[in-house]
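Title: Comparing notes on inverse folding

I've been comparing how different people in this forum approach sequence design from structure. To keep things fair, I'm posting one structure and asking everyone to reply with a full sequence. Here's the target:
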């Protein structure tokens, strides 16, 4: 098995959405869905731009913008498809398709340059078999949008350079796609604003095209773009690759996860972070959730601290939006957006789901009640500072952020007159199927952590514990305790949302995703291995894993009590989320398909913190491995307080080399 190669045989347009995620390429500035060159918007083709948002006319939801597709290419008069392969080289982010038609062979390769953020290189090889073939390639101006259209005043130009330019509806942000190529075309063709070059091909033919997004056209060749691109990838892997010995599938799957994380890291922009669906499209409004701080930060903190700092800085920069949100609800301090968009503004609405039965928007409480979000920011900041030793970030806004979040919690807290502890009522914890609950254990701990870090002396109410089991929120144990299968059997529609007060899970103990398990993992020193085990055994059968954020927390938990065998399937589930596809694509009538960066970040956490057992003990990194049977050795580089280190783990011994 080649641990750097993803291959799919056979031509199946029904797989376009899954393959679009599976074969994504990207360079942090943009993500290019892994669709075929001849596909158009109905197949979810997208060049998705990081951090560029728009609200289209008459739409309530803002979402990120897709650029006109400069990668379009198709053959005419080629007959039927005889064989077809789509492949992704995940070491260097190179997408290739090879198709044998009745009358020609076609191979197209492409990569989004890691060295030149605005640039995509494409090479088209056509080998006619017995009759002349026509190649049409250019810029398809019909852009896939979920809540569009976003591109206004579109116009196109053709000549040596093809160009389609437009401006966004809301803020007139210029968006352009340009294309150059290394051969003269036979004719130009236009369709609406789309513009194509046409080549009549009689002999084997190689065409190099360079597509630039929001930048001046680049005249170059595929080969010359490839070298700096590959060099950049080499450096990224040198600083991050986790080497797994003994288990090729685990190696491939983890490489794949980390490939995605590298593709979406916003190395080139300021005040940009990572959206919950990465750069795979407009789902979840392209917004940044707690996924980044809790599930992605460990990867970047350990492998690319400068990028991790940027991610925190995005939140510091977004404090104004968090102050505004707190004020909107009558609170002090900083209440961070649940779905953060450009500038740290809130993208989440009060009606985030559409009911499948009535097609009416449903009141959801993610925006106003999922208050653990502010504590998640403080947690990520402090973890970053502990691992990197970057105390300066505290002066550069970290302290302000922490104090502002603490102020928010103090103003949001509830105190009974006869008690001296603070409570947090009417909240939503990580388990979104139970809305408006009191004293969610995870939320309370995040609030307490924030108050501690801000130097405020207040006690927050601790969770109730029954026989070692932490009650997820007040009254949870009294809910109907039935199996996942029974709850599932109560569904009346495959797309039905399980949460909200009328959802099938709401009155039961079935939870959407790791909640208590997230708590015990994020605060490992406060829970013994035995505590973790008891809670794992209780909560796992009650967890639907309806979010891709869930599996990694259960894997990490299982490693705590030495059960790598229980962790391993959750590891593969996290690492292969986008490779295997098949995750939930609908929340009610709202489309939620796309890639799952948090699962990818979770896979990295499982490998390093779970299987490797990497943790800070006092001020020193240490290992406490829990290797699955199939893995005989694990090595990985990481940065600790400015120094490169390497963890070496086998079943017999382990060490950290600096
Ligand atoms: O942040 C998550 C949330 O925890 C569950 N629903 C999806 C969000 C984005 O991944």
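Reply #1:
Here's my take.
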């Amino acid at each position: 098995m080649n641990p750097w190669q993803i291959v799919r045989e056979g031509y199946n347009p029904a797989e376009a959405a899954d393959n679009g995620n599976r074969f994504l390429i990207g360079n942090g500035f943009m993500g290019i869905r892994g669709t075929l060159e001849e596909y158009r918007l109905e197949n979810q083709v997208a060049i998705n731009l990081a951090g560029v948002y728009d609200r289209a006319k008459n739409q309530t939801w803002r979402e990120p913008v897709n650029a006109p597709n400069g990668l379009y290419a198709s053959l005419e008069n080629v007959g039927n498809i005889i064989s077809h392969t789509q492949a992704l080289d995940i070491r260097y982010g190179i997408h290739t398709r090879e198709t044998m038609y009745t009358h020609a062979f076609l191979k197209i390769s492409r990569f989004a340059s890691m060295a030149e953020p605005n640039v995509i290189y494409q090479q088209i090889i056509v080998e006619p078999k017995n009759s002349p073939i026509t190649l049409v390639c250019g810029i398809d101006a019909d852009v896939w949008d979920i809540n569009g259209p976003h591109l206004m005043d579109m116009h196109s130009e053709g000549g040596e350079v093809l160009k389609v330019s437009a401006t966004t509806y809301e803020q007139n942000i210029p968006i352009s796609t340009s294309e150059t190529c290394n051969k003269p075309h036979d004719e130009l063709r236009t369709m609406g604003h789309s513009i194509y070059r046409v080549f009549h091909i009689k002999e084997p033919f190689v065409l190099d095209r360079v597509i630039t997004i929001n930048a001046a056209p680049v005249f170059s060749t595929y080969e010359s773009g490839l070298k700096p691109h590959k060099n950049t990838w080499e450096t990224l892997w040198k600083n991050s690759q986790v080497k797994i010995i003994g288990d090729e599938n685990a190696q491939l799957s983890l490489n794949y996860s980390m490939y995605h994380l590298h593709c979406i890291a916003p190395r080139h922009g300021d005040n940009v972070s990572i959206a919950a669906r990465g750069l795979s499209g407009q789902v979840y409004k392209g917004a940044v959730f707690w996924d980044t701080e809790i599930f992605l930060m460990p990867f970047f903190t350990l492998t690319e601290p400068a990028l991790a700092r940027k991610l925190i800085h995005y939140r510091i920069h977004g404090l104004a939006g968090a102050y505004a949100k707190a004020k909107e609800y009558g609170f002090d301090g900083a209440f961070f957006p649940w779905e953060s968009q450009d500038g740290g503004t809130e993208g989440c609405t009060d009606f985030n789901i559409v009911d499948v039965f009535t097609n009416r928007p449903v009141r959801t409480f993610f925006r106003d009640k999922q208050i653990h979000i502010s504590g998640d920011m403080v947690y990520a900041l402090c973890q970053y500072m502990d691992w990197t030793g970057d105390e300066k970030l505290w002066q550069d806004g970290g302290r302000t952020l922490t104090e502002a979040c603490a102020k928010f919690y103090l103003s949001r807290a509830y105190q009974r007159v006869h008690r001296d502890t603070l409570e947090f009522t009417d909240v939503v914890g990580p388990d979104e199927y139970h809305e408006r609950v009191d004293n969610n254990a995870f939320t309370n701990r995040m609030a307490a952590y924030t108050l501690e870090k801000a130097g405020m002396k207040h006690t927050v109410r601790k969770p109730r514990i029954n026989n070692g089991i932490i009650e997820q929120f007040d009254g949870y144990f009294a809910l109907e305790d039935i199996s996942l299968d029974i709850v599932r059997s109560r569904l009346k529609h495959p797309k039905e949302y399980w949460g909200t007060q009328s959802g099938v899970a709401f009155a039961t103990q079935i939870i959407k995703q790791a909640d208590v398990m997230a708590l015990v993992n994020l605060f490992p020193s406060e829970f013994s291995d035995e505590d973790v085990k008891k809670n794992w055994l209780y909560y796992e059968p009650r967890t639907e894993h309806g979010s891709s954020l869930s599996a990694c927390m259960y894997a990490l938990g299982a490693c705590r009590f030495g059960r790598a065998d229980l962790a391993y399937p959750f590891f593969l589930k996290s690492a292969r989320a986008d490779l295997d596809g098949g995750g939930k694509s609908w929340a009610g009538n709202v489309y939620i398909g796309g890639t799952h960066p948090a699962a990818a970040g979770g896979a990295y956490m499982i490998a390093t913190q779970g299987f490797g057992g990497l943790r800070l003990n006092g001020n020193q990194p240490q290992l406490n491995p829990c290797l699955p049977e199939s893995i005989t050795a694990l090595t990985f580089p990481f940065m600790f307080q400015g120094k490169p280190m390497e963890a070496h783990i086998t079943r017999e011994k382990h060490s950290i080399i600096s």
